[in-house]
Amino acid sequence: MRVLVLGVDGYIGWALAQRLAHRGYDVYGADNFFTRRRVKEVGSDSVLPIPSIGKRLIDFKKFYGRELKFFRGNVSDPGFLYRIFRDIEPDVVYHLAEQRSAPYSMLGLKQANETMVTNIVSTLNLIYAAKDMNPDVHIIKLGTMGEYGTPNIDIPEGFFEVNFRGRKDILPFPRNAGSWYHWTKVHDSNNLMFANRLWKLKITDVMQGVVYGTGTKEIENSHLYTRFDIDEVWGTALNRFAAQAVAGLPITPYGKGNQKRGFLSLEDSITCLTIALEKPPDDGEYRVLNQFDQYYSINELAETTGEVYREMTGRPAKIEHVPNPRVESEDHYYSPDHKKLQDLGYKPSGELRNDLRKIIGDLMEYKEKCVELRNVVMPRTSWRDSSGL
Amino acid sequence: MRVLVLGVDGYIGWALAQRLAHRGYDVYGADNFFTRRRVKEVGSDSVLPIPSIGKRLIDFKKFYGRELKFFRGNVSDPGFLYRIFRDIEPDVVYHLAEQRSAPYSMLGLKQANETMVTNIVSTLNLIYAAKDMNPDVHIIKLGTMGEYGTPNIDIPEGFFEVNFRGRKDILPFPRNAGSWYHWTKVHDSNNLMFANRLWKLKITDVMQGVVYGTGTKEIENSHLYTRFDIDEVWGTALNRFAAQAVAGLPITPYGKGNQKRGFLSLEDSITCLTIALEKPPDDGEYRVLNQFDQYYSINELAETTGEVYREMTGRPAKIEHVPNPRVESEDHYYSPDHKKLQDLGYKPSGELRNDLRKIIGDLMEYKEKCVELRNVVMPRTSWRDSSGL
User: Fold this and answer.
1) ipTM score assigned to the predicted complex
2) pTM (2 decimals)?
3) Strand partners, A28
4) How many structural domains compose chain B?
5) Interface test with A, best of B126, B128, B132, B339 (most A CBs within 10 A)
């Protein structure tokens, strides 16, 4: 089975490619190194050292005994994507090739527009490439739990039954995202749902929680590390908290820290994405999966990180709430469903403390790098101050 | 009061500018003539003769006794929009400057992407220009009733109370549009709702029905005619039906013709848009208005057009159902609310027969043009066949 990973050079893409190779798939990848460039632009870097794609591909072959055929280019360019489809005729395409940072999208109008255009056009190109070149392809698209926002009711998986003025319908669950980035994922979901209605494309739309972790069970060789970002633009909560502890910096929840979100380890993310491939939707189905392990408040995560760090090192970690740079509810109901992936075989590992031990252990080896990046860890990108020209 | 009309050269924009001048506002306009160019590209033309913008502006001043200051450029260019804001400091901005044709957006990937980017970026630019330059400006944005699709329940105005598993919330009503064009309006609505949440911008988001008619009460002078499109890409149902009757062609509902949609005359559209300005939302409010007069099935409209034409001319008009080029329900429940504009003073005129008499009468004067355009009236753009490179 030929599997194409768009965004193969990224945090999830590079780990996913390895799992797929490990499980015997023919893996193809594409990337334009957008994240590498943009991370450098904010003065940051991956804490785990990641070699160039050329070296990565050599080590990939050495370790997994099979080649990963790589295409360098931009999925926002339809010609590039159509050429790949023509060349390799993929059976499954993972679309992880979008601008993935909420703070980046909020830096200002330029980045807001760039995020909108890059993400929406890339998904539309994929829709048409599938429709024109292989309507049977299974598209697995990475969305986010953040599409739903924090409504005062349970969050179903994509659709729900509505009773309104004595009548019923099954409708898409209303989305209410919290950054331009998150909104692009909503727009993508809408466009994918429509493409499915038009042309019966087979689509899994993954509403993924926040991913944390330094690796997966395959990634033993440091040459095959995936990237690990901790700065305020490209890093995410738990990874950043662990790095803050390791660097001797305070752990900094935004605002009150009562915000709740779904989280999962990189290991679980890759497991779920593989399940999505191996347990595909029916032909012509548009399937929405809520993909996370547990949900936690940001405070729980900060405290658990601090405790694990103290257990491991004997040193305390300070928790210091900072003004919330985002516009979001800090006290809210949160109860998202996540049943469908479990019905397909996913067992949420719920091993936050173990996961944190692994992350902190790995980061201790790169403590100097964490310290070096301390100036880009604290929030600077303000949702309120985002402006234009 | 300084009122800026983005898309002032268009069907609604040009009529709106005249109403605003008539009511004593200082009117400013911008356009890039996208519609003029694209209509020509499909071999079509406005049935009513429309002069160049230069001539339009001269006659505008002659007739209304005040100048309309015009800016030529593209609202998708943030620099252009920021310069206008700096120059004129508008109190109200109507955003009518989007790609407005559903069939155009379905021609293929190129047009789909163009529609996505043009529309979404233009609205995002407007959001940032407002936020940066004048956060008190009232943005009146043209959306479409087509954002809602045809759910099996009543359609409220933007938001509704959801009861789900014993809990309640007020949430955005789920959208389910029927073309890439219609989806861009959904994406815009989502982005506007979020901009309001972020920065308390004052926004009226107009979910407008299908507009028909050759003019408004101000437009007496043929030099001030607004455009009137009848081709399958740029024309809309009722206007096309009237032109088909006048040209001696069969009136062609798509598919079964039981599709129901909200409709309103251009006169009513301009009246409602003016009410939106004169009865603004509260500061910091995001307001959604469903804007239409009545809803009809396409068959009712086709039959009424035929009857009015026969009454006026003594000649019958043939109705000929053609295969539906769209992917849409042809039998469905339809019951959208439209109470808010009536609460603000709008009286739905419900004068379809009178409106049709006026349209058919006006078109009789341009019968030759209707006949000349007969080859571009029949549907060619197929939702099913839309493809890429």
Assistant:
1) 0.97
2) 0.98
3) A4, A69
4) 1
5) B128
Domain residues for the domain of B346 are: 2-376
Helical (H) or strand (E) element with A214: none
Choose among B211, B204, B247: nearest CA to B227: B211
How far apart are the CA of A387 and the nearest CA of chain B, in angstroms? 6
Please tell me the distance from the alpha carbon of residue B359 to that of residue B41, in angstroms, as a whole number.
25
Q: Which two tokens stand for residue B326?
A: 């769209």
Q: Closest partner residue to A165 among B131, B132, B153, by Cβ?
A: B153
Is the residue at A301 inside a domain?
Answer: no
| Chain segment A361-389, per-residue pLDDT in tens | 999 999 999 999 999 999 999 999 999 97
CB-based contact A36:A368 (threshold 8 Å): no
Residue B48 in any domain: the answer is: yes
Contact A173 B174 (CB under 8 A): yes
Where does the pLDDT of residue B260 fall: very low under 50, low under 70, confident under 90, or very high at 90 and above? very high
CB nearest to A152's CB, from B167, B175, B180:
B167
Q: Given this model, what pLDDT does residue B220 score?
A: 85
The mean of the pLDDT values for chain B is 97
Chain-chain contact of B389 with A199 (C-beta, under 8 angstroms): no
Nearest CA in chain B to A106: B198
Best mutation target, B176, B193, B382, to test chain A (most A CBs within 10 A): B176
Q: Which of A153, A169, A387 sits opposite B162 (nearest CB)?
A: A153
Nearest Cα to B246, choosing from B368, B377, B358, B352? B368
Q: Indicate which residues of A carry an active-site annotation.
A: 144, 181, 185
- With beta carbons less than 8 A apart as the criterion, state whether A257 and A326 touch: no
Query: A220 pLDDT band (50/70/90 cuts)?
Result: confident
In-domain check, residue B191: yes
| Closest Cβ–Cβ partner in B109, B164, B177 for A153 | B164
User: Is the pLDDT reported for residue B270 higher than 90?
Assistant: yes
| Pairing status of strand B167-172 against strand B159-164 | antiparallel
Which has the closest alpha carbon to A120: B132, B188, B340, B159?
B188
Backbone phi, then psi, for B364, in 5-degree steps? -55, -35
Backbone φ, ψ for residue B59 (5° rounding): -70, -35
Q: Is B117 in contact with A120 (Cβ distance < 8 A)?
A: yes
Question: Please, what is the end-to-end C-alpha distance for chain A in angstroms?
Answer: 48
CB contact (8 A) between residue A113 and residue B124: yes
Q: Is residue B383 part of a domain?
A: no
The residue in chain A having the minimum alpha-carbon distance to the alpha carbon of residue B179 is A194
**CATH of residue A11:** 3.40.50.720
